[in-house]
Each structure stands twice: as C-alpha cells, then as structure tokens.
Amino acid sequence: MNAPAPDRGHAPVLSAAQMRAVDQAATERFGIPSLLLMENAGRGLCELALRAAPGASLRVAVVCGAGANGGDGLVAARHLMLAGANVRVFLIAPRAKITGDAGVNLGALAALPGVELVDASAWSDPDGPWQPALAAAGVIVDAVFGIGLRADVTGVPAAAIAAMNAAPGTRIAADVPSGLDADSGRARGIAVRADVTGTMGARKLGLALDADAPCGRVEVIGLGVPMPAPPDHLGPLAFWLEAAAIADVLPRRTASGHKGTAGHALIIAGSAGKTGAAVLAGRAALRAGAGLVTLASTAAGQAALDAKIVELMSASYAAGDDADAGSAAAIGALAARMKAIAIGPGIPTGPGMAALVRGISATLGLPLVVDADALNLLGAAHKGALASAPAPRVLTPHPGEAARLLATSTEAVQADRLAAARTLARDTRATVVLKGARTVIAEPDGTAFINPTANAALGTAGSGDVLTGVIVALLAQGLSPIAAATAGVFVHGAGGEAAARRLGGIIAGDLPEAIAAAIADLRSGASHARPEEGRAGA
Question: What is the pTM of this model?
C-alpha cells in the first residue's frame, strides 16, 4: 500500500469520511476501478482467514451485508473456495438488493461449482437457524457493515452479529467489526467481537483510539493501488506510531560523545513527602540518555533527595515549603546551564509555586515540559500565556488535568480524546500528550499521533513522572518537541509492556531500566515488528 503522506514514517489513521474520500480519489483521479479495490480487499481477508486457521479441512462461514463490506466478504469467499476451504455464505439481505460492485462479485461467486449461498435475510432470531449454521465454522468472516454505519443495529443484522459473537469459531472482521462506529470505536447497539480485524487501506480512528474496542488484532490490508491524501477540509491527519520510525529519531551518541554532549536536563520536582516523584523523573531522564540531570526542589525537598540519589544532582530554589520571591531568579541561574527543563512532579501547590509555574511557562527561553501539579497550577485561566512562550512547550496531562485546562469534565475529555488533545494544543500552541490507554499526542496544527504501546500495568503511581523524565531527556538531547513526545511515549509504553511481561505487576521504579532496554532494542532493530501488528494482502 502506498499510504496517504505518512508523517515522519508513521502510518495514517483515517476517519470514515477521510477513507471514503481516499477511495473515491483513487478511483476518479487515477482511473482505478472500484472493483479492483474490492478484489484486493477480499483477497486480503482470505489470506487472514487462511492464516487464522490453516488446513485443507478449513470450514468458513462468511456473513455478508448488501453493501461494499458485503462485497469484500463475497470476494473473500471466492478466494477461500479456490484455496480449498469449505465455505458457506450467508446473505442477510435479499439477493435482489445486492447491487453494484457487490452484485458483480455475488454473480462471480454464484458461478463457481459447489458454492453454498444461504438466504438469511429473514433470520431475526440469533438462537434460531443462526446457531446451528455457524456452530461448525472454524472461521467466521464478518462482512455485514463497513465504515458507513450511521444508525444503531437492529433486526436481522443484530441477530447475525449476536450469533457470530456466540459462535465458537475465530471471528475475522472486514474493515471494522460490524456495529462498531469507525470513528469512535463504540458499539452502535451491538458489535461483532472480532479476534482479527482486516482494515482496508489504512487503520480507522475507531480501531486506534479506543483500547477496549472489540477489534482484536488489527492488520492493515493493502489495496495495491496509489492512495492519495484525503482533502484538507476533512480535518488534519492522525498517525499510528511505528517502531521503525521511532528508532530513526532516537538520539545516538557518537564515538567521541560524553555526558556534556548528551544534554543537561533540569527537573523542578519534589517537596517534603513527595521526593519520590522527583527521583523517578530524574532516574528516567538518565536512563533515556541525558548526560546530566539536576533535580531542583525546596530546601527540605533537597535534603530528602540528597539522602536518596547517587547519579543525580540536586539544587534548591526556596528556603521554605513553597516557592518564594527569589525562586524565579534561582531557577533562572540554573537554567543558564541547561538544554531543557521539566516542572511538575511532586512540587508544592502553594501560591508561590503557582506564580513560579505561570512565570516560567510564559517566559522561559528553553524547551519546557509541564506536568502534574504544574498543569493544575497553570489552570484554564493562564494556559493562554503558553501560546506566546519564547520556546517550545510540551504538556503531559492525564484526562483530569486536561479537563481542568479545558474547563470541562473528565467525562467530556474521555468521550473524544482526539478532539480534546487537538483543542488544547491549538489553544496553547504546545505539543500535548494526553495520557491514557491509547495516549494521543497532538500538535498545534491538529496533526495527531496515537501510541500503540502500553497496557493497564502502566496505571501505577509515578508512571507519569517517569514519562516526564524521558521526554525532558530527549529534549535535552536535541529532539524537537513532537519527536521527543512521540518517542518518549512510545518507549515508555514499550518498556512498560516488557516489564509487565517479565514481572507481572510492575511499579514505576521498574520502568527506567525497562525503558533503557526498550531504547536499546529499538536502536538495534529488535523491536521493529510488533507481534500483534501486521499487514495482509497486496
């Protein structure tokens, strides 16, 4: 597949409208028949089915709707029959209503000797004829609905979906699991719980944004044709982070490199009782390659840190438990030796620190990562000052912090994470990292990236502090804000996945070393092929 303008080597993730425009442009601009697109889509589905349950005795049930998605299923059925599989095709619409490209492929399938086409257009009870019909299938191909679903699923389609979910075979969805909203990943009443989804041309937003979407393993089926970028009026593009592209941007020390050439990062973090956050961020920054890391805290915080740290340096910006009138000058003096700064993990939350955070965020002439309580102290009322900051800013909110910055609710943020990240990035002119099961990284122009790494094990105290350390370390080594944010999120998640596999349950202190190992694997190429991802077809 020649994907639409991959940004920095990452794979595009398209909305339903963008995908329809891409398909139309491929047909109209390049004169490529839509039948060819359907043929390649169905052949890719066939390959997925053969890989899912190989063997000469493979029994496949293909459940087809009346539209283009059903046409993909009909093509898949033809190729599966030609490969020797025992195939039964269930039509949930009367044959007279299957027209256009799907109708052409229905005719081609019907012409094959021994084909079994079952009229299921009146099967409205999932426990009726559906149950015995699907019970013997080793693989079930779901080709009922595609990306055009606009209403909740009812009637015969709902019965077919319920029956597929109850059947024992491996479920393979064509493009998106039927009943799933292609943009949000939410079920429209009922949706197929797919084991594998073969998505056509490019991954869809609904398959990428919602980690709980019932799509199973997602494989992109190449359509074998040039695919132009969608038009700008359909919105900015999103991208799925790819390991090889992340590896390309990770800093590498030259043979003559040393700590002084790898950047000095300042992390304003910790206070009495909260120095663990500072230590986690600092250790992560060192493990992510920063040559030098200084932790700046209150006097009491520094004293506690000095009893804990070895490789990290410490400094104080205030004599009491809150920032004071001299704190800005103290931070300014420290900043003169730095390449990048982070602020937030475990800091005090008094009025002095609020003033310091707002001043630094608006005026500091170095790349700055703003996290945790620094985001809360900044707040919705002051976030606009970031738009005119003299150097790049990276914001790393979790959904609750993003909600406070946007003056909305956490539920509203979670309902449309992509829109929330894009809005915050636009309003602040900053790179925004909206943390979560599928972290979204957004640029001010709306370009967004979705992170495939990470799992629920990363939902542990201090995990966000580690991410802050990684991102500021990458900034200190000279990466751009978007490169530091995307690479930082990716290796943080990859390290967490590896640590969880090794240890079972993990704590944040396990992450810095795991992240260093993930970075080493990426540099060596060992992790460029994620086992749950792939491509099928042309």
Answer: 0.93
